[in-house]
């Protein structure tokens, strides 16, 4: 099945139109910063997307308030899915950029009820690079965290 990819400019993307009510969606919940609605693809029944109301492409473009609001809404939806669909587990998944599997470039998080036998695959290749490499990666991230974020200096 070909992958749907939405490359529309900000304000005209499919999720902006959905937030604006210009296209129909099975809405689940909304607050000031987020909207939760059913994913049309439904990898399992109860599969919900939590999107920011404002157009932001990836996690890098969110305000701290939006980032917190998305997780707050995702948790509420997860609790509702737990009640409504009695899954064996719940998966929260969030993709940033084409290489990570993002297909609609308006920030969203998937809340997916999971079942022991649902057959959903997730490729997760372990590499075990060793303690020295881990310390090196951590040092690079600590250095980046200590620098002022881009655009705020
Ligand atoms: Zn958008």
UniProtKB/TrEMBL annotation:
One of its GO terms (molecular function) is catalytic activity. It comes from the Bacteria. It holds the Pfam family HIT. Residues 14-121 form the HIT domain. A motif (Histidine triad motif) lies at residues 106-110. PROSITE patterns: HIT_2. InterPro entries: HINT, Histidine_triad_HIT, HIT-like, HIT-like_sf. CDD domains: HINT_subgroup. GO terms for biological process: nucleotide metabolic process. The active site is at 108 (tele-amp-histidine intermediate). PANTHER family: ADENOSINE 5'-MONOPHOSPHORAMIDASE HNT1, HIT FAMILY PROTEIN 1. This is HIT family protein. It comes from Xenophilus arseniciresistens.
């Amino acid at each position: 099945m070909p992958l749907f990819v939405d490359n529309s400019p900000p304000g005209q993307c499919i999720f902006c139109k959905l937030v604006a009510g210009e296209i129909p969606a099975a809405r689940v919940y909304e607050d000031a910063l987020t909207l939760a609605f059913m994913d049309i693809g439904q990898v399992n029944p109860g599969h919900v997307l939590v999107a920011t109301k404002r157009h932001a492409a990836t996690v890098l473009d969110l305000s701290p308030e939006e980032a917190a609001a998305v997780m707050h809404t995702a948790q509420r939806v997860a609790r509702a899915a737990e009640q409504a669909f009695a899954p064996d587990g719940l998966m929260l998944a969030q993709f940033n950029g084409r290489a990570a599997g993002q297909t609609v470039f308006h920030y969203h998080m998937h809340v997916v009820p999971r079942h022991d036998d649902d057959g959903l695959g997730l490729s997760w290749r372990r590499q075990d690079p060793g303690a020295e490499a881990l310390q090196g990666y951590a040092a690079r991230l600590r250095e980046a965290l200590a620098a002022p974020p881009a655009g705020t200096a």
